[in-house]
Amino acid sequence: MSEVKIPSRTYRPETRLVHSGTLRSQYGETSESLFLTQGFVYDSAEQCEARFKGEDPGFLYSRFSNPTVAMFEQRMIDLEGAEAARATATGMAAVTTAMLAPLKAGDHVVAAKALFGSCRYVVETLLPRYGIESTLVDGLDLDQWRKAMRPNTRTCFLESPTNPTLDVLDIGAIAEIAHAGGARLVVDNVFATPIWQSPLTLGADVVVYSATKHIDGQGRCLGGVILSSNDFIQEHIHTFLRQTGPAISPFNAWVLLKGLETLGVRVKAQTTSAAAIADTLAKHPKISRLIYPGRADHPQAATVKKQMRAGSTMIGFEVKGGKAAAFRTLNALKLACISNNLGDSKTIVTHPATTTHQRLAPEDRAELGISEGFIRYSTGLEHPDDLIEDLTAALDKA
Question: Taking the model in full, what pTM does it have?
Answer without folding.
Answer: 0.96
